[in-house]
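call fold(seq) -> tokens
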Amino acid sequence: MADERLNITGNSLWSGVQGWEYLDLKRFWQILLIMGLFFWVIMLYRVLRGRLKSEKRLNLPGIFFCVALAILAFYAVGLALFCLRYLIPADRWSDKAAETSFWMLNIGLAWTSFVTLFPLGIIQLYHSVSEGYFEARSLDFLYSHSNTLIEWLRLPGDMVFIIGILPILYLVWQGMRHRVAKVTREEPQKVLFTEIRD
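ret:
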């Protein structure tokens, strides 16, 4: 309750106000969100691990688990970039690396979603409705040439996604090498990342 009072007066650095966008959340809630998503992925793995081991990787349980990991990874990357922005001095920070990483990660994920996962889901749904659920889950259908081709079409999107990680690794290296000696505990009001001065 004391923290709620600090929220009203605007003096709470850690808890912030709930209900705003992800970037408006304070550090405590961002870290708690990452921990909750990590716990969620562990629970999903415990539920799906038998199916993941016994079936083809790009079947529906595998796709569902990959998407869950992608959600956690994107929130973790966002939090890491937020923290790195304050660790790296302004003259060493690279907006180009952050922008390149953002676009490559999103293009890679969109490629995987719309070129592989969505068509495979539609084909399996059509096969399930027209011939039955058992036939849609049979090995003959899952290892058919069309499904295998669609799975291989995922490779360019995966490569773009993996290359999109390299700028983040560069920023982490910059953060470790050129860390700001003294970081202020006060946050400027109404500023997201940088303040433009004329």
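The helical segments are 2-9, 27-54, 60-87, 95-131, 133-136, 139-142, 145-152, 155-177.
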